[in-house]
Design brief:
Blueprint: E1 2-3, H1 23-29, E2 57-59, E3 62-64, E4 81-83, E5 88-90, E6 103-105, E7 109-111, E8 132-133, E9 139-140, E10 154-159, E11 164-169, E12 185-187, E13 191-193, E14 207-212, E15 217-222, H2 379-382
Parallel strand pairs: 1-10
Antiparallel strand pairs: 2-3, 4-5, 6-7, 8-9, 10-11, 12-13, 14-15
Amino acid sequence: MVRVRVLAVAVLLLGGCSRSMLPVAADRDAGAVAPDAGDCSTDSDCDDGSTCNGEEVCASGSCMPGDAETCDDGVDCTADACDVGLDHCVHPPDQTLCGANEVCDRDLGCAAKPCSGVAECDDGFLCNGQETCGASGLCVAGAPIVCDDDTDCTIDSCSESSGSCVFAPDDSSCDDGSFCDGAEFCVSGVGCSSAIRGACDDSDPCTTTTCVESTDSCQVTLRDQDVDGAIDALCGGTDCDDSLAAVKPGASEACSNTLDDDCDGATDCADSTCVMDVACVTCDASETSCTNGVDDDCDGSLDCVDTTCASQPICCVPTTESCTNGRDDDCDGAVDCADSACTGSAGCCVPRAEQCRNGRDDDCDGDTDCDDSQCASNPLCLVPCLPFEICLPLGIDADCDGAAGCMDSQCRNSPRCR
């Protein structure tokens, strides 16, 4: 219990051996400075609204405290004080300062006061007890109200306005000197209680707080439960699953684990990065598109690299037909041995009678047309070579250049060969 006899809102100070000022009122306001001290232009900027602690002034741009009110009424038996609640001086009589058969008169001090009834003895204050008119015809002081709730952390006082005790909890008296364990508080009738929560407990599920006792400060970080460096999306961050460290923006999409690994809003095969993944591709019998960037037939070759697309106009770059690679190298729509350019080649030749002057090695003996012994007596080989080709679809090799009829380059633009 902190037993302080204080006058606050007309609270009576009792006890002592001489006239005294009200200590709590003086301590509370002594040196008080208006808010924003250090930044003023006139005295009114510094006024804290209290008369008890004096009139604040503005000096050189800074607020300076005034002189506290003295409140001395010159009467030895009154408890002079400035009541902060009333904002003016009060002078309650302290009957304990007077001798036997005396009462404290606010004008005369301690004196024997004749009376004929109680009303003549009433000093107008409740907390110092009820004065009575004694048998001797003199006023007798009453018994002061004693306020004590047996609680160490309360400031016990008597309220003049109600004539009853007030037990004001003083939390500062419960402070254990530790910052991190939170603010201890006083409960009237109980005593000091531990803090409800630590100084850094902000009750925010999205923050992790660490208390630093040495600096009386709190360090706050946003929630990252899986410690992957990405803040939980539920707390304003970008981590779409704060329970798995492998899931966060920038991670690789696994394509078949039902998780949005990279937190882009698309899961597995719906993610653009999984288009080529084997788990997401449905294989067709052949490459269905030569321009979609997908290995449609799952043979490891995409688009124009796939043999299926080699003959497509969009993929074909004409070269000499190789006859054995399964591609339409010259882009004429015929592949390998089906291409007339491969007729007679070693890989495509099917022996038959030499036709003589058709530009082909029909019997596959390595000799073509008139160079073949089978054509030695053929009338076509007795005709000299012409300086030009006769452009017919099934013509002979008239200019003896190895290309017969429409197959000759001279016939490329001939209407007969279209």
